[in-house]
Write a structure and sequence with these properties.
With about 250 residues, the protein is of the alpha+beta class. The protein has helices spanning about 1-20, 40-55, 85-90, 160-165, 175-185, 200-210, 245-250, and strands spanning about 30-35, 40, 60-65, 65-70, 75-85, 95-100, 110-115, 120-125, 130-135, 135-140, 150, 170, 190-200, 215-220, 235-240. The strands form three sheets. An eight-stranded mixed β-sheet has the order 4-3-5-6-7-8-9-10, sandwiched between helices. The protein binds magnesium ion.
Length: about 250
C-alpha cells in the first residue's frame, strides 16, 4: 500500500502542476463528452491526463471522465481529477483533487487524499490510522455551540434542506470532496447532498477521511453509505460529525 500511496501523492502533484499551467480563462472550455455523459471541460481533461500518465499500469483506475480502466491489478484508484470544476471555471477559489485507493467499493477504501488546490490544504486518511490535515491529526467537532451545515441547495436540495436554510447557519461551496473534509476537520458539522447525484469518484476518499476523523457518512435514507466502484451508481451523501447531527438533517 505504501507504494500506491506514494503514487497517489505524485498524482496530486502532477494534477496541480498541470492545472497551474492552464490559463484560467481556458478552464471551462468544453473538449469532449465524459464517461458520465456530461461534457468534459478542459481543466478536467488536463487534470485526468496528468493522473493517468503517473498511474500508468500500476493500478486500475476509475475516473470521472475516462471511466474504468482495468489494468488487471488488485487495487483501483478512484479519482475525481477536479472536484468543483464549476468553481474552477468561474474563478471561485474552492476546487481540488480527490483520490481513493480500494478494491471494489467505498467501504474497502484503504487510503484517501483530497487537496484543495487554491488553499493548498491536504486531507488524508489511511484506514485504521486516523485522518490528517497537512500532516496534523484531525477529528470531527463535538462542540455544538455554533453549528454549521454545508448543504447542497437549489435543485440539489430537498424540502428538508430548504427549510433548514431559514433557521441555521448554512454554507454551500460546490466541491463535495472538500466539503466532506471540512466536516472531518471540525470546520463544519455536516455536509448534505440530499439528491442521488454524487458518484463514488466524488466521495470515496471523503468517506474514509470523515470516518477516520470519527464522523460517519450516510445516504439520505440514513443508511451507512457504501456503493461499488461504478460510475453508473449515484447516491445522496450525508457526512456528519455524529449521529445526533444526522438525525437533525434526515
Ligand atoms: Mg470532477
Amino acid at each position: 500500500m505504501d507504494y500506491l500511496i506514494d503514487i497517489a501523492k505524485e498524482v496530486v502533484e502532477a494534477i496541480e502542476k498541470a492545472v497551474r499551467k492552464v490559463a484560467r480563462e481556458n478552464f471551462g472550455k468544453e473538449v469532449a463528452m465524459g464517461a458520465d455523459g456530461t461534457p468534459t471541460l478542459y481543466i478536467d481533461k488536463v487534470a485526468e491526463d496528468a493522473a493517468l500518465e503517473v498511474i500508468g499500469k500500476e493500478a486500475n483506475v476509475l475516473s470521472e471522465e475516462a471511466g474504468y480502466i482495468d489494468n488487471g491489478k488488485k487495487y483501483t484508484f478512484v479519482i475525481d481529477p477536479i472536484d468543483g470544476t464549476r468553481n474552477a471555471a468561474h474563478g471561485i477559489p474552492f476546487y481540488g483533487i480527490s483520490i481513493a485507493i480500494g478494491r471494489k467499493s467505498v467501504e474497502d477504501v484503504e487510503y484517501g487524499i483530497v487537496k484543495n488546490i487554491p488553499s493548498g490544504d491536504v486531507y488524508e486518511a489511511i484506514k485504521g490510522e486516523g485522518a490528517y490535515l497537512n500532516g496534523k491529526r484531525i477529528e470531527v467537532s463535538e462542540d455544538y455551540s455554533d453549528i454549521i451545515y454545508i448543504l447542497a441547495l437549489g435543485e440539489s436540495g430537498n424540502e428538508k434542506t430548504w427549510k433548514l436554510v431559514k433557521f441555521n447557519t448554512i454554507r454551500a461551496m460546490g466541491a463535495a470532496a472538500i466539503e466532506m473534509c471540512l466536516v472531518a476537520c471540525g470546520a463544519a458539522h455536516a455536509y448534505f447532498m440530499p439528491q442521488e447525484s454524487l458518484r463514488t469518484t466524488d466521495f470515496a476518499a471523503g468517506c474514509l477521511i470523515v470516518r477516520e476523523a470519527g464522523g460517519e457518512v450516510y445516504n439520505a435514507n440514513g443508511e451507512v453509505l457504501n456503493v461499488p466502484f461504478d460510475l453508473k451508481v449515484r447516491s445522496s451523501v450525508l457526512a456528519v460529525a455524529s449521529r445526533k447531527i444526522a438525525e437533525a438533517l434526515l
